[in-house]
Amino acid sequence: MDFLTKNALLIGLAVGSGLMLLWPLIRRGAGGIASISANDAVLLINRSHAVVLDVRDDAEFAAGHITDAKHIPVAQLQERLKELVKLKDKPVLVYCQSGQRSAKATDILVKNEFKQVHQLQGGIKAWQDAKLPVVKA
User: Fold this and answer.
1) Which residue among the candidates 96, 109, 117, 120 is catalytic per the annotation?
2) What is the CATH number of domain 33-129?
3) Is the Cβ–Cβ distance between 115 and 88 less than 8 Å?
């Protein structure tokens, strides 16, 4: 007991850092949404023929998007879900500019029974930082 009281701060730091390391796994497990890197996204697209969903606004999409990305702004996603119904069992890669809108979009998809939803970690910015190609409309 004496050890615990003398080292409470160190024990607290160890437990806290452990939880911080596990937080991404806990969050992904709880929400069912996998956040993947740009390189893993390329593998998902090429190997699993994932559908790529861009949830940014029209101007952002026109400025540059991933090849063959389907464009549905996040504000319109709920009302346009019928366009995606046939894709419920396919892998879907969702992205936006940096990750916030795609998190909202992935929540909508999961709530509507999409089975394999993935979020591009860091959005199109991470894609471009990885020197991966974009198409300009």
Assistant:
1) 96
2) 3.40.250.10
3) yes
Report whether 106 contacts 33 (CB < 8 A).
yes
Tell me, yes or no, if 96 is annotated catalytic: yes
Backbone angles phi, psi at 2, to 5 degrees: -60, -35
Residue ranges with strand state E in 9-66: 34-36, 51-54
pTM of the model: 0.77
Locate 20 and state its tokens: 């911080």
Q: How far is CA 99 from the centre of its chain?
A: 7
pLDDT tens per residue across span 36-80: 999 999 999 999 999 999 999 999 999 999 999 999 999 999 999
Environment class of 87 (CB within 10 Å of its CB; exposed 0-12, middle 13-18, buried 19+): middle
* DSSP β-ladder status, 51-54 and 91-95: parallel
**For residues 17 and 23, what is the distance between their CA atoms, to the nearest angstrom?**
10
Tokens of 135: 């198409």
Alpha-carbon span 45 to 54, nearest angstrom: 14
* DSSP codes of every residue in 82-129: GGTGGGTTSEEEEE-SSSHHHHHHHHHHHHTT-SEEEEETTHHHHHHH
